[in-house]
Amino acid sequence: MNVFLWGVLPYAAFALLIAGLVWRHRYDRFGWTTRSSQVYESKLLNIASPVFHYGILFVLAGHLIGLFIPASWTQSIGISEHAYHLFSLYGGTVSGVLAVAGIGMLVYRRRTNAPVFRATTANDKLMYVFLLGALLLGMIAKLSDTSGNGYDYRSTIAPWSRSLFTLNPKTELMAGVPVLYHVHAVVGMVLIALVPYTRLVHMFSAPLQYLTRPYVVYRSRDPRQLGPRPDRRGWERTGS
């Protein structure tokens, strides 16, 4: 089971992610969307959506820093393990609270607004369960040991995560990891596998081309043609 969870499941989740993205792009391009329900209700959405998106972006950034930046790198620039732990604890908690609060408002909106609820699919409900579960489990695992430097996941989970990219997973590192971190990691991997089959697929279609597209050039009007003008009979000449 240890080999399956930490040596097989990560690659299975990644394979389902890639296969799902290819399939969705090839056969369901019109479905590659958030299926926005803003037309039904926008007041609460304008609050809940930014709260969730900012929270989840900070959560993802924290995971990338914690898992893929070795402790020796942060120590080399003068950040002690205790300082890193405090930053991770408070920053991760605030980010998690923002994301959970955003999801809570989004779920409340979907449940209390009839048109939005009718537009909610089974995939949406499954996505909310795993997304909320991953966030809550991560926060509980983090807050379960706040004494000292907390659980040192940078010497176990982080090296295991990096070893996946060398195709030589160090499954033995995950043997002594607390159960809460185990469950959090498994739920997170299942969520990664589900991404292409839910509305979360829109994260792979960020409009980055807007950063490099040329400016839209508007032609100026002749000042003599500004303002109201009298009606004219007959055909008007077209400009070249």
Description:
Helix 1 runs parallel beside helix 8 (179-194), helix 2 (45-68) runs antiparallel to helix 4 and helix 6 (122-143) runs antiparallel to helix 8. The mean pLDDT is 86. It is built from eight helices and no strands. It has helices at 2-27, 45-68, 71-76, 81-112, 114-118, 122-143, 157-163, 179-194. The longest helix is centred in the middle third of the chain and has 32 residues, at 81-112. 57% of the residues lie in helices and 0% in strands. The protein is mainly α and 240 residues long.
Query: Outline, from the CA principal axes?
Result: elongated
Taking Cα atoms only, what radius of gyration do you get, to the nearest Å?
Answer: 25 Å
Low-confidence stretches: none
Strand content: under 5%
What's the SSE pattern? HHHHHHHH
The number of helical segments is 8
Task: Give the N-to-C terminal Cα separation.
Answer: 75 Å
The largest sheet is:
none
Q: By helix and strand content, what is the structural category?
A: mainly alpha
